[in-house]
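REVIEWER CHECKLIST
Item 1: Sequence provided? yes
Item 2: Single chain? yes
Item 3: Sequence as submitted:
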Amino acid sequence: MSTIHGYVVDDNKWEVRGGNGQCNTAVKNGVTYFIKRMNSPKYPVSDHFDADYRRAKIAECDEWLRYRKRIAAALPGTGSGNIIKPLEYFREGPCFYEVTNLVDVDSIPYEEIWKESKQEKARLMMTVAMSLSQMHNCGIVHGDLDPGNILISRSKNGHLITKMIDFTDAFFRMEIPDAIMSKDAWWSPEVAVYTKLKDQKKLDWRKQITTKADIFSLGLIFHQYCTKGAVFPKHSGNYPWNELIKGGVLKADSSIEPEFQELINSMLALEPDDRPEMAEIHQKLRDIAEGKKPEPPVTPPTPPKPEPVKKTGEVQPGPKKSSAGKSVVSAQRHEKNPKKVVLKYDDGTQQIMDFNLAKNLGLIKVD
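Item 4: Structure as written out by the authors:
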């Protein structure tokens, strides 16, 4: 056992989870917490480092710590509801640590969710959508959505509930990091492009990264909730985003309920702007949970066809001149609108005028 910043941990129980840290439980003042030791950044505590290198690394670490604290402060909730946000960041020696409340539940495997009723799946997805909507309203992108970061349990009344965890890679919508350290299987197409092409300075790929990246990842998760084996939509590449980048389309599996198919397909659109907002997703899930049938599309009434203007004869130039003193040298009815007449003047100009107006002004006559 050892004490880190007042937290007592068992040094033999550190476990590797994800790509940027080891996890453990820690006890402080009789309360058990979840603690994560980051692999990076590392604070240069050794005196053997070059002075310039040490200053640069310290500045990098300080910036990272300030940013993580800003994210934690901006995340909604207290850290004990549906969003298990970080409670504290600190450094001990060369390592940085993140502390959150311990979620002490028997998590239901996401591979089993497909067995639940349509209404129960919709209620489950609603809790996820609500959490993500609250984050997006704060201008924060989760950045690392996958089924492992959404813990599922069952409440006392039997309904499925969720808790969203792991905000180590969350970022502000207007402050895109140099690297998005999410799992590539759940990447959106724009995150994939940004990650692979961000060093190409010709285009500002950061502009493509929005909260809609989370929408795409969530669409994949919803697809996994709804399919036996928790599979992705059918794709020919290594990952779903490969299919879109090479010009294909992702379609929800036909075994999924039609209401979910429609929603998931919209969430997996290639263009971020074509994906729905979280509020729209939440409302559609509410309608499914409450058994509401979608409203049939409203067909606008067919406007009555305008009565055709009868042609009364050949149109000829009239005896009068225009207000500008120009004489009409030729006149003919408009090809597409018989209520109009095309006038050509003696100075070579042309004008389209209402037929009756031109007649009343004496600019034309009808034989």
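Item 5: Key structural point noted by reviewer: The chain has three domains: 2-101, 110-289, 315-366.
Item 6: Recommendation: ____
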